[in-house]
Amino acid sequence: MNASPDLRSGWVRTLRLMPPSLEDNTADADRLVSALKTELNTDSVSMDLDLLKRMPGLLRKSGFEIRCTLFRENGQWQVVSVDGPSSAKPPAGVAVDLGTSRVVVRLLDLTSGQTLSETAFDNPQIAVGPDVLARIHTADTSKGGEHLQKLIIDGLNINIERLCVECGLAPGDVHLMTVAGNTAMSHLFLGLEPRWIIREPYIPVVNRPGLVPAAKLGLDLNPSTRVKVFPNVGSYFGGDLIAGILFSGLNRSPDTAILVDVGTNAEVVLGNENWLVACAGAAGPALEGGVTDMGMMAGPGVIDTVAIDPESGDLVFHAIDEKAPVGICGSGLIDLAAQLFLAGMVDIRGKLVPDRCSERFRLIDELSAFELVPKEKSGSGEALTVGQADLDSLIRSKAAMFTILETITETVGITPDDLGAFHVAGTFGSFIKPQSAITVGMLPDLRLDRYHALGNSSLGGATLALTDPDCIEEIDRIRDRITYLELNVNQVFMNRFSAAKFLPHTDRGRFPSVPLPQK
Amino acid sequence: MNASPDLRSGWVRTLRLMPPSLEDNTADADRLVSALKTELNTDSVSMDLDLLKRMPGLLRKSGFEIRCTLFRENGQWQVVSVDGPSSAKPPAGVAVDLGTSRVVVRLLDLTSGQTLSETAFDNPQIAVGPDVLARIHTADTSKGGEHLQKLIIDGLNINIERLCVECGLAPGDVHLMTVAGNTAMSHLFLGLEPRWIIREPYIPVVNRPGLVPAAKLGLDLNPSTRVKVFPNVGSYFGGDLIAGILFSGLNRSPDTAILVDVGTNAEVVLGNENWLVACAGAAGPALEGGVTDMGMMAGPGVIDTVAIDPESGDLVFHAIDEKAPVGICGSGLIDLAAQLFLAGMVDIRGKLVPDRCSERFRLIDELSAFELVPKEKSGSGEALTVGQADLDSLIRSKAAMFTILETITETVGITPDDLGAFHVAGTFGSFIKPQSAITVGMLPDLRLDRYHALGNSSLGGATLALTDPDCIEEIDRIRDRITYLELNVNQVFMNRFSAAKFLPHTDRGRFPSVPLPQK
After folding, report:
1. CA angle B109-B114-B118, nearest 5°?
2. Which residue of A has its CA nearest to B58?
3. Cβ–Cβ below 8 Å for A206 and B27
4. A85: how many CB neighbours lie within 10 A of its CB?
5. How far is B364 from chain A, CA to nearest CA, in Å?
6. Between the CA of residue A85 and those of A64, A68, A469, B177, B242, what are the distances in Å?
7. Shortest CA distance from A46: residue in chain B
8. Which chain A positions have a beta carbon within 8 Å of B27's beta carbon?
9. CA dist., res. A254 & res. A406, Å (int)
């Protein structure tokens, strides 16, 4: 028995077994298991009855040379599929970022670890409830949970099949699946009652779901396919963040670094190879909805970059896909706020200054507004304006984010300057320009090269678990090492929050790189 | 968390968990798993998705005090059921002796280990083929294997349901099941291809089937019920024998002892706490059918005891249930042969001596026969006779058995006198009288108190695995320690066989306790 050395590091192993003889009459399955135990240096390898049934034919047809796809949980290896070594189709894996709003599915070749294709779709549960809370309440009704589970499973089945067909594969060729989602989404996906997640003392059904047979979830994949749902730390710290930490490498970093993920929620993880501390933006009622209510999602015609010449006041912008502008996304709004501030068009409280904004200043229903795009240049046929309320909301958001960062760093006794790297994850993180976020005082004034946009870190982590078996134990280690910091919204916190509600901050000395605004 | 000490030794544990709080927000399932890890002193406890789904309701309804049924394989504990501590119905288990001809099912209360009820039925696969070979050939045909599996599963479902109803339980209350059968029967039960069992080099699909979900086999038990199928050593040494060894205690005995199981086959295991050597009577073609072709199965009206007054030649017998005699079973036939020999009515070759048999001697179709019961006393309306051919067959059987015993003991360098105990298992073993078996030279001339009738040792072993968790690892240890001795039917063996074809043996010195026959 020997293994192809180039495949040693993945979930797929090719083995040549000694054929049975009168001298060695070990059973077919035990022969394979024994070879795998040697190959994998483990004493725990098991397989399903379905695989046992196919074993005699498979081994004899392939001359006892076979390719196995494996998975592991708690040090226990599971044989998930077995075929001949020269099968035309590679064993495939699917990594899923199970977002509350968006679901991203990536199809991989497990032999090479290469991405074959990828797609994204709106979480079909939106039809039932736009947010986690509404869905949990629906799950509480009769058949509500089953319906919610069916919606997401159907959505995954359709999209996985499409990806497979596109790559000349069938869903039956998918042998492994990883799913990273927040605790509520993971529960709804597994068909588990999310009722107690939102009720004090906020208890999930399970923290470590382990490897679940895909068939038990209604997924139309191979009958033996196993699904790894990333573990959660609790109701408010889900598998998506564990995946994000894994992808960021925070847990392996000798220097203390930080990971900020702004999705439906804003979560912050601080740590290094020795410790990890986390907190989530939804932890304090003062912050609810505060961090995330910033503009629309990125898409064609959405403004993601704004620049204002501080001298002339001329404004230029970039709309995605060079389409006529239809709105502004979060990162665009931060750009705008930063530029307005530097041009003196908003004051340090974030209030529009009418005479500095001049002809772009509007009063809509007696509320101040800034005209970003006039009617004739807009893709919607209406002028695009940003109201004072939008700016106020942004100020609260950025103040909340900064306060969280200040609180978490202070709690562990460091300052932002001590951070070796600052990872910004999520769609938001891919678009945000650190310079603008610093200018408005949302992110600390670090050297720009310390900022790293991770993109979809949940999907990245889910992908790593499919390509690097060593990550499996790392996931549990990350989970176990996290100290979850309950954000105590006390007077100290509120004082910090108030001080952060200025541009960039009441304490200007914290933002030495931000120029003084135009007078 | 604490455990009821009286239940510590079984598969059922009652635990009181700390209810969750803001300080301890561990998820429901992980809370239980963590308590079980402490209670069981293990780091591997898992449970099915079905149980996870019911966990929040179960824990809250029972005030976080719960009763779990567990099972274990390879050191990995599986939570099989969870309910409130005061549920009216006990978790039940089913032990099965899966015989080629007869299937015995025992229902147990897992909390007390007590047998609740028991039943036996003919293996429904007999309809397809009377013996292992015929069934394996049928399994080779299209849908043949599925049909055979359905026959036995249906038979089990019907009988288990009947047992449950009889005891005020439902099949859904059965949480654990153990099955001890020969390798072919285990394969057909699991729906595994038995094709290669009977083809050189005689390879089973699996040696250690592990814990199989009952639902995957079509068993209508609780959805999470696990079935342990006893492991086999190879195609000709099955789980029924492993169960028998476990039940006999051979594997824990400081003195070397022997276990002989005469069922459809005759198997012999010799050993002690340090080593185990086994061989099976079907191993040599000269012995095929040789050991077992002895009379009918025990039942009402079947003669199981025969005594002949050596002086007067008067014959008395006992028929089961005191019914009018209809035939003779194996142990009755051995009794008869011993008594005929001692009375001088057969010679040392086992041939009927006409003038000694006097009026009981018959010629039927020109062949000698002995009239056991005259027509007028018979329950069948016909005289019951035992032909010379029956006696010849018995002589071959007993010679085969003795030769196997002689060979296996000599192989390990001991004599029968060194045996601390001689266990005789199987229905045959329950009826056989060691004195008669010694007289005909079937069993060695040991002190009678060394002989132990074990009864149904397969069922006994299957029961032990349901009542004593320590047995689970013992089963694998037994399996791994067995050296299977391929009976080499060479000239030495055939010489021994020839020498053993006399009553009691050509070497009379080996049977000092057997009186000289009546002259």
Report:
1. 85
2. A205
3. yes
4. 14
5. 47
6. 10, 9, 20, 37, 36
7. B210
8. 203-207, 232, 234
9. 21
Are B263 and B99 a contacting pair, CB within 8 Å? yes
User: The complex's ipTM?
Assistant: 0.90
CB-nearest to B200 from A22, A192, A208 is A22
* B239 in contact with chain A, both atoms CB, cutoff 8 A: no
Give yes or no for B25 touching A (CB within 8 A).
Answer: yes
Report chain A residues whose CB lies below 8 A from the CB of B55.
Answer: 205-206
Helices marked H in B62-141: 132-139
Q: Would you give per-residue pLDDT tens digits along chain B (519 residues)?
A: 344 444 446 999 999 999 999 989 999 999 999 999 999 999 999 999 999 999 999 999 999 999 999 999 999 999 999 998 878 899 999 999 999 999 999 999 999 999 999 999 999 999 999 989 999 999 999 999 999 999 999 999 999 999 999 999 999 999 999 999 999 999 999 999 999 999 999 999 999 999 999 999 999 999 899 999 999 999 989 999 999 999 999 999 999 999 998 765 678 999 999 999 998 764 333 333 344 445 567 788 989 899 999 888 899 999 999 999 998 888 888 999 999 999 999 999 999 999 999 999 999 999 999 999 999 999 989 999 999 988 988 888 888 889 989 999 999 999 988 999 999 987 777 778 999 999 999 999 999 999 999 999 999 999 999 999 999 999 999 999 999 887 777 888 889 999 999 999 999 999 999 999 988
Which residues have a Cβ under 8 Å from the Cβ of A77 and sit 6 or more positions away?
A36, A40, A42, A44, A45, A46, A70, A71
Question: Least CB-CB distance to A49: which of B21, B216, B232?
Answer: B216
Of residues A28, A44, A204, nearest to B203 (C-beta): A28
Contact B501, B396 (CB under 8 A): yes
Whether residues B30 and A191 touch (CB distance < 8 A) is answered with no
Residue B193 touches chain A, beta carbons under 8 Å: yes
CA of A51: which chain B residue's CA is closest? B192
CA dihedral (A189, A191, A193, A194) in degrees, to 10, reads: 10
